[in-house]
Amino acid sequence: MLRFLIAVIRRDLKLAARRKGDWLTSQFFFVMVVSMFPLGIGPDPAMLSKVAGGVLWVAALLAALLSLSRLFADDHRDGSLEQMLLSPNPPVLLALGKALAHWLIYGIPLLLIAPVLGVQFALPGDAIGVLMLSLLVGTPVLSLLGSVGAALTLGLRGGGVLLTLLILPLYVPALIFGAGAVDATLAGVGAEANLSLLAAFMVMTLLVSPWVAAAALRVSIE
Amino acid sequence: MSDTAAVLSVHDLACARGERTLFTGMNFSLGQGQLLLVQGGNGRGKTSLLRLLTGLAHPLAGEIRWRGRALADGRELFHREMAYLGHLNGIKDELTPVENLRLAGDLEGMPMDQATAERALTDIGLARCLDLPCRVLSFGQRRRVALAGLVASGSLLWILDEPLTGLDVHGVAMVEGLLRDHVGAGGMVVMTTHQPLALDGLAVVPLLVGPALTRPEPGNQEEPACCAS
Amino acid sequence: MSSSIAWFKFAAPMTFYGLAGRLIPWFAWSAGLLAAIGVYIAFFVAPTDFQQGEAYRVIFIHVPAAWMSMFLYLVMAFWSAVGLAWNTRLSFMMSRALAPTGALFAFLSLWTGALWGKPMWGAWWVWDARLTSSLILFFLYVGIMALWSAIDDPRRGDKAGALLTLIGAINVPIIYFSVKWWNTLHQGASISLMKAPTMAATMVTGMLIMTFAAWFYAIAAAMIRVRGIILERERHTEWAAEILEGK
């Protein structure tokens, strides 16, 4: 069981290593979207630090959705998704493995770039730390819930936009708790409450979404 | 030479695609050392039948049994003993043939070492492409990679949907050889093909998919009203 | 045995088609009657609110609409769960038939919320916890309907929509909680429609009657829609073809 999970994750990491273009595109998307905001709302550091948490989190949601639309699509196109579903292992592990691999490939880099962008947005040091922490706890939610959407929209026309439409509302709690943690730090009230709620939400999605994603995969493949 | 005990059996199987009922009341069984040749024109449901047999799709009615157990109950055992090659090869273009084979082995839970993978690919005529990414291989060569994976999987039942597509004359002869070896060694095959295959001497069970099978038995009142077309 | 079950599944939409046809007028007329009584209470019986003036009367639509939008989502989730558990086609059809009405009520609650917000807060839109939750619920409805419309195969569409509805249903309480949490942090509007200090008994009565009107309307609308869906899905069967030709 665990061997299969690790095999799925290693497979996706290997494929991502062979396709660095896709990976870089998603990271640069994140950086560029965030960088557009100061140009739109002005360079005042006080205002920028106030919106930083929200802007970075919204950009992270969009960047995640952008890469998620291909989570299963490539494997579906070349038939390897079918082959993996036909392995004697439960599809839940496949869905979980794909989501975890997505998090490792796309989520972790986001939180590593985030401090640089935080500095651009005049965030103080402790807020940058909390921002990274909130992304560390929150980005798995994006990958897990997104995997459900990716499985549901597999092979549909306009799948990418549709995925955004389906999944963005479900991301609301992650956005609120994640950006809220940064805001709370700035306001000096401490981010523990927000981070704990975010962690609870993450654990819940971890328990629920692989099952739904696996069911959705079976429905979409049929 | 054929073992008559049915390993795979199908009972009153019905299949629909979209709103169209493709066939109903299909029954057959297959034992070790037998090859089921699925025949029928385009759009008659050959591919749909094969996908039902793999367990990827679910029948409208009826049941498929593997070793006497319904597919839904014994999925794990069935998928351990079954290998499927559909229209798509299921190989990753970014990886080399060897990597593809070893990856498939890992996912199946049967890790394969480098030498075994290389031997499987060499046997199938891909000795010169072992460390090229599959992206640069021709269509027929990629098909061969998939076939090598099929053989290497060591599965009892092969489900093959048009395995000859994209293969040259040598390739077709090679597939014939593979089928002979597999069935001769007690393996089972369910396949479709549009091309003629020399399978003489093998226990071939023909199965015609299409409206002939959908004719209701006399007096069967519960036959769902089928579309008139 | 298995054939009798198949027959049952086949017949269920057919019997329901007839049943729904007989029930629709009852629900439709009840909805109309209740709405008339409710509107009468809203405008002529209920007293003017001393704090909020006449503008508060929009709650007779706003509150039932908001309730119904949430309630219908739960009903959809129920039918989705039933459909996925027992693979009953009619359940999926019910879920599909309810979605547009649910979205309509969610939209109505947003609209009336805006109408009420203008005199109360001086702005058409305020990021109040309830309104924001309604907005996100509306987005969920839109997402589910968009997914249905993107999938051509009815069987896949049914199941995919049901899965999305269910994961949304699990998420809705969390979304609601998170939005309230967010709202208290950011000190949004503190006045709530339901917290009107003088909640007269007539107001509650009027609101309940309007809620029942909305409920019956939702049932009637869903049944009309489900009849359409049944006919469309079953158009290849004899009985549906007879109905279609008879018209």
Low-pLDDT runs of chain B: 213-229
As for the number of domains of chain B, it is 1
User: How far apart, in Å, are the first and last alpha carbons of chain C?
Assistant: 36 Å
Q: Name the helix and strand elements of chain C from N-terminus to C-terminus, one letter apiece.
A: HHHHHHH
According to DSSP, the number of beta strands of chain B is 9
CATH topology of chain B: Rossmann fold
Cα end-to-end separation of chain B = 43 Å
Structural class designation of chain C: mainly alpha
Uncertain stretches of chain C: 1-5
What is the arithmetic mean of pLDDT of chain B?
A: 83
| Tally of strands of chain C | 0
Strand percentage of chain B, roughly?
Answer: 25-35%
Helix amount of chain B: 25-40%
Helix content of chain C: over 70%
> Main sheet of chain B?
5 strands, parallel
Report the portion of residues of chain C in β strands: under 5%
Mean pLDDT of chain C: 84
In short:
Chain B: It holds the Pfam family ABC_tran. The complex is a heterotrimer of chains A (about 220), B (about 230) and C (about 250). Chain A is mainly α and about 220 residues long.
Structure description:
The complex is a heterotrimer of chains A (222), B (229) and C (247). Chain A is mainly α. Chain A has helices at residues 2-18, 20-41, 45-68, 73-77, 80-85, 91-120, 125-152, 159-167, 172-187, 192-221. Chain B has seven helices and nine strands; from the N terminus they run E-E-E-H-E-E-H-E-H-H-H-E-H-E-E-H. Chain B has helices spanning 46-54, 75-81, 97-108, 114-123, 139-152, 169-184, 211-214, and strands spanning 6-17, 20-31, 34-39, 61-66, 69-70, 82-85, 157-161, 188-192, 203-208. Mean pLDDT of chain C is 84; it is low at 1-5. Chain C is globular. Chain C starts with a helix and ends with a helix. Chain C has one domain (20-246). Chain A binds chain C through residues 145, 148, 152-153, 156-159, 162, 165-170, 172-173, 176-177, 180, 183-184, 197, 201, 204, 208-209, 212, 215-216, 219-220, 222, and chain C through 84, 136, 139-140, 142-144, 146-147, 150-151, 155-156, 159-160, 163-164, 166-168, 170-171, 174-175, 177-179, 181-182, 185. Chain B: Residues 8-229 form the ABC transporter domain. Chain B: InterPro entries: AAA+_ATPase (IPR003593), ABC_transporter-like_ATP-bd (IPR003439), ABC_transporter-like_CS (IPR017871), ABC_transptr_haem_export_CcmA (IPR005895), P-loop_NTPase (IPR027417). Chain B: Keywords: ATP-binding, Cell membrane, Cytochrome c-type biogenesis, Membrane, Nucleotide-binding, Translocase, Transport. Chain B: GO terms for molecular function: ATP binding; ATP hydrolysis activity; transmembrane transporter activity.
